[in-house]
Amino acid sequence: MQKNLKTRTVIIVVTILLCVVGIIGLPTSKADLVDHLKNSIRLGLDLKGGSHLVMEVQVQDAVKGDAQQTVERLQQEGAKQGIVWNSAEVSDPQSVDDAGKVTITIKGVNPTKSSDFRNLVSTEFPTYILTTVNSTDYSMKLKPSDLIDLKKLAVQGSIDTISNRINDMGVAETSVQQYGQSGADYQILIELPGVDDPARAKEQIGTTAVLQITGVDKQHDTAFTSRDDALAKLGGVLPLNETLVRSKPRVRGQGEEWFLVGKVPVITGKDMRNARAGQGDTARTWQTSFTLSQDGGRRFARFTGDHVGDKLAVILDNDIVSVATINERIEDSGRIMGLGSEEEAADLARYLRSGSLPARVTPAFENSVGPSLGADSIHQGIVAGIAGLLAVIVVMLAYYKRSGVNAVLALFLNTIILLAAISYLHAALTLPGIAGVILTIGMAVDSNVLIFERIREELRTGKGVIAAVDTGFNKAWWTIVDTHVTTIVSCAFLFLFGEGPVRGFAVTLTIGLFANVFTAVFVSRTIFNWELSGRRGMEALSI
Amino acid sequence: MELFKNTNYDFLGKKWPFIIASLVLTVAGFGSIALKGGLKYGIDFKEGTLIQVKFANPPQDNKIRSAMLQKIKTEVSVQDLSGNGVVNTVEIGTEAKGQGESQLNTNQNTMRAVLTDTFGQPGSGKLDLNNTSEEELTNRLRDPLARAGVALNEDQLKTLIRNILGEMNTQHSGLIVDFSQLSSVAGMNSGIMNTLRQECYLAPFHVVSAQMVGPKVGAKLREKAVLATLYALAGMLAYIAFRFEWIYGLGAVIACFHDTLITIGLFSLFDKEISMTVIAALLTLVGYSMNDTIVIFDRIRENLKFSRKESLEAVMNRAVNQTLSRTVMTSGLTFLTVIALFIFGGPVLGGFSFALVCGIIVGTYSSVFIASPIVLFWHNYADSRRKTPVGGGPATPRVETVRKSPTKAVR
């Protein structure tokens, strides 16, 4: 028993040390300690203050956009093969639920060309299903699998773009993620700690035009080393309708580069349809090709036609990401050639794509808690917690005397383990999480009460102290297992099917219950053993 | 100290008054829900817009309402939250009622604007210090501070602004009535104070929190919370059925259901809102009630091993008596914690602790007077069917249908 006791003590001490390190780290000063504590116990937005936003991606926009592009291409291809029709229209979806109903209706196809037309669609537009309405009219719809892909892509694209924009706002610990099931839900959950008036955030998230392509000044198309350098060279005055924009450094430590560019962009994010990276015409060169909308293409053609040999700048969120020379007149599809690496080409493609949201995003849910309310909640919560805990300690000590100390120690250890686990898991403590903590403490007290009552019963039957403690623990064990397993089973379901707050509750409760089995059974038992081993054959137990 | 030593109360004999009390409570609760036209949902379930505003003086609800109604076309509710440690705080809300998300979003911005127009100084050109953000205040003060000769670099400026807002949020609940309340802020000097007075004013209110729930998200949240709870109950039923007998699982789950229903009924009777935190409390209550029931069931199972001749009712009574001390201790202690939460926990935890206060009382007696009688009724019914010859097999002794608890225990 003595050896057994030693092993048990070592396990307990190691656990305590691990937990304490988990919570406060290895502080070297008082300030360090406070710092570590703040870092390890992260508070949820409901306690700290901040905003939860859920934005809905209007995926029907992306589906409609695809359909419109298809109509444009269909018209070009049809014209090449001499197939003509009277009208081709895309239906106008009203809500997200209508995304699957977007239909292209083509009327008045010459009946003699009908087989050519069907061939054209099946070879050039394999993602669409063609339905014959009558001899001259047809309708086209996206295939279900392609529809799902397109919607997923729209949501993912929106998440990427919004992440970029939020990072630019300089808020720490933000998160942007899919909300609900991928492919079935089109919502994005955005968390902004410390932002209690998300109006600006919503504005920034929802805007579609932060990508700009604009001309670089003809006379000054090389980079300036700084803003001051530029002003000095320009004689202190910027030309009308032109502005200075800094280039985003490609390599860390690279000197600043500023360009004098036109204020009015030729192309904005909403004109950009797609962009992809690819291999250049000669070996080891890379390029990024892009396509523009019909309208954007017309504007771009006019501009590039007038400015062959000049430079243009791609600006994303007020930083130049690329400067290229115009080699020829470009219509709706062009390419930026001579890029240094595959990575550079891929980055540029991503910039071009991410500048535009593939679909509108609209706010669907918002919960903003001001830091003052958070501070009040924490303060009140702590007062209530301490008052409750004190009451529990007083009653336990009064009712179970020396053994009560045992229970109180187990309770403290349980709380420490719980906090350490939250810290190790990088989970955040939220209000529902605190609910989980309260239930944990309730069940921890209960486990001790169960054991003590059992020991008392055994003592009453006339058993010796050691035998009574032994039987008490053994008999209470299965009850404790049953209550804990039942609750863990329910937590598993809450975690699987629940959402946000319900999940937080389930996580803290599960951790607490595991800690509880350890403290109430293992630790408490060890303390009893330790007490009893000192005085073998002790007559009375303070319980 | 021991309160209950070898008690021998006839608990199950007194089940009827409690069952009737439960029925009365359930009917009263549901009657109240029906009369009030449904439950009062918190904003997270209801769909709509809501802002919580703290005022420096007792708020004039009617003035707020009429000001809001001039700008917002739909119904506007203004509710005073004062009491329970909260002072001068109101909740202003509009319900969705067929409005889309974008309209709700607009409503929220309108509400803030109306408050500024009515209570602030919109024409003064100054910034409202009680309703500003870190970024806004920093940008506002940067140049004036420089002009006033207060030399601060960008980092020092940011620290100063953070200290000012931090002091307001932690010491004054985000609302100050006089600039002199900021004199103890670290780094404050007369130059900064004068600039603050020049550039800012103090509106007599502070927006504490804001929420907007669009129709889609509201419905999804409701659905998910209910589904998760039902699955969790089913999971527990399965586990208890596996460890005991299916009727024990059913009894325990019905008892939990009973507790939840009564608590929800009490929410309606006392006119309290069901919010997401209340759902967390209901889940806590389910866990607690289940725990209580299993302790008693465990004892019944243990007693059944040794007392083959006793009637099930007597065995159950003995189990309840044996665990009485534990039941009173655990419930009492948990109740103490929850009461502390109810008294000191403040408004955010108000609904949460109310649910637990009700739940613990109901949950404790339901284990004895709801869960156990269900098991008893079923066994009595099954026994009486066995006695009447309907062609069933030979009557098996009741005891053997109960699974034995494993005797080997782990230390």
Provide an overview of this structure.
Chain A has 14 helices and 19 strands. Chain A has helices at 2-24, 30-40, 45-48, 59-81, 114-124, 144-168, 199-206, 227-233, 294-306, 342-354, 371-424, 431-460, 465-497, 500-534, and strands at residues 42-43, 50-57, 87-90, 104-107, 128-132, 138-142, 175-179, 187-193, 211-215, 242-246, 258-262, 267-268, 272-279, 286-292, 311-316, 319-325, 333-339, 361-369, 428-429. In chain A, strands 7-8-2-18 form a 4-stranded antiparallel sheet. Chain A is elongated. By secondary structure, chain B is α+β, with helices and mostly antiparallel strands. Chain B has 3 domains: 12-40 and 214-387 and 395-401, Multidrug efflux transporter AcrB transmembrane fold; 48-120 and 209-213, Alpha-Beta Plaits; 123-203. Mean pLDDT of chain B is 83; it is low at 391-411. Chains A and B meet through strand 18, helix 11, helix 12, helix 13 and helix 14 of A and helix 4, helix 6, strand 6, helix 8 and helix 10 of B.
